[in-house]
Amino acid sequence: MDDAKALKVRLTFCAILVGVSLMLAAVVTDHWAVLSPKVERYNATCEAAHFGLWRLCTKRIFVVDTDHRGCGPIDLPGEHNCSYFRHFNPGESSEIFEVTTQKEYSISAAAIAIFSIFFMIMGTVITLLSFWKKKDYLLKPAAMFYTFAGLCIIISVEVMRQSVKRMIDSEDTVWMEYYYSWSFACACAAFVLLFVFGVALLLISLPRLPRNPWETCMDADPEH
């Protein structure tokens, strides 16, 4: 691999590592969506919630005055409590979430995110092995793993989005307002970086195309 190509690979890998960090931040945090019930009166407490792939967190917020009917914002001080979803930890209690959404959505989003992490780990291990062993051909499967990781995380995002939509549209729900928070944004940004730069890494690792019509692929620079 020549110096110019090696520089492109390293820069692409750095961008991929940023995507990896964003994806890990999204998967382990609990701020994918924030839910707010209708506030009937002021000078009272209301309970807002935010959740991720694994846990639901609720916060009791004292409402003094607000321009809208929702409870929040979620960053106001209040009594905070987090619990794992019942289908992940039977010992924990999260009835308020279990009643208003389909647990199949939550399980599916979490399972797809685990596949994304697996592909990401495989891509990173193979890329580092390529650098260590000087085996350029290993960059191709690594790039594919990163691309698959990006696709999986965006599928997980869409499943979560459908889960929130069905929950808000349900007649039995107590939630009136919702918005997607920074964990959701991290997952979307991770998809862009992993998918785009995974494809870029694949294109960079491909053999050089013939420069002239009479030059064959056998005449291209050999891979090491």
TrEMBL record:
GO biological process: establishment of localization in cell; regulation of calcium ion transmembrane transport via high voltage-gated calcium channel; sarcoplasmic reticulum calcium ion transport
Keywords attached to this entry: Calcium, Calcium channel, Calcium transport, Cell membrane, Disulfide bond, Glycoprotein, Ion channel, Ion transport, Membrane, Transmembrane, Transmembrane helix, Transport, Voltage-gated channel
Topological type in the membrane: Multi-pass membrane protein
MF term (GO), any: voltage-gated calcium channel activity
Membrane-crossing segments per the record: 12-34, 107-131, 143-160, 180-204
One GO CC term, this protein: L-type voltage-gated calcium channel complex
Stored InterPro entries: PMP22/EMP/MP20/Claudin (IPR004031), VDCC_g1su (IPR005421), VDCC_gsu (IPR008368)
Principal location: membrane
Protein's cellular compartments: Cell membrane, Sarcolemma; Membrane
Domain of life (superkingdom): Eukaryota
Protein role: Regulatory subunit of the voltage-gated calcium channel that gives rise to L-type calcium currents in skeletal muscle. Regulates channel inactivation kinetics.
Family per similarity comment: Belongs to the PMP-22/EMP/MP20 family. CACNG subfamily.
Subunit structure comment from the entry: Component of a calcium channel complex consisting of a pore-forming alpha subunit (CACNA1S) and the ancillary subunits CACNB1 or CACNB2, CACNG1 and CACNA2D1. The channel complex contains alpha, beta, gamma and delta subunits in a 1:1:1:1 ratio, i.e. it contains either CACNB1 or CACNB2.
This protein's name: Voltage-dependent calcium channel gamma-1 subunit
Phylogenetic placement of the source organism: Eukaryota, Metazoa, Chordata, Craniata, Vertebrata
